[in-house]
Amino acid sequence: MAPLDERTEIAEVETSGSIATEKKPISTILIIIAMQTEALPLVAKFQLSEDQDSVFPKGVPWVRYHGIYKDLKINIIWPGKDQSLGVDCVGTISASLVTYASIQALKPDLIINAGTAGGFKAKGACIGDVFLASRVAFHDRRIPIPVFDQYGIGARKTFPIPNIFKELKLKEGKLSTGDSLDMSPHDEAAIAANDATVKDMEGAAVAYVADLLSVPAIFVKAVSDIVDGDKPTAEEFLRNLVAVTAALDQAVTQVVDFINGKFLSEL
Ligand code: ADE
Q: Which end of the chain is flanked by fewer CB atoms within 10 Å, N or C?
């Protein structure tokens, strides 16, 4: 543990940081969404336009939609399509990169990572449920060496949003992240150890970068498939993607409407 005077200094830095963020209500938000199907209805809902003069390095497929909605500057970031394969750039690598680049370029007050997720019926998840994650962790970074094991799991609490929970009556659950849509026996054990109700491919990566750069982040995940059910995951996911996206978009809109005009401490 750090000596007492160093710990006091850290506490002071954190305190002054949070006071600084409270001088004005939330103004700029970054919504990170991995799939175009999930992003486009929200782009339409908030009447955003695609960035013509990209804030990102030349040649990357990352797309920013932006505009003003109520009192908020909204940016939806979609990592785009893989340049050779033409599919959405899902997963932790693209999510980390766009989160880092977007924070650097746009200096958001708050990040919302929104998307579909697999849900565990044993933990109370049903198709179409929308969860706000109270904690995030990885389930496919196994490093069986003391302390590295914890680094691999990368568990962290998300930004506290008690008033959003009270007001919006969305479900609360822990989120586990990995780079596969399916679930290996190793993943299954790690997800159980993470006590997760929902499983995605981006959340903990977005949380890692947001933490690194001290930006609060919240996670809105809509259940598109039941991982511990009897249907093949990929089929169930593709069949439900469009319908569940409607529930996701409704929840994100409710969250954004709640955020509008508020301070971080009021969430
Ligand atoms: N996104 C939607 N369903 C998922 C699943 N089962 N695993 C990971 N990410 C998902």
A: N
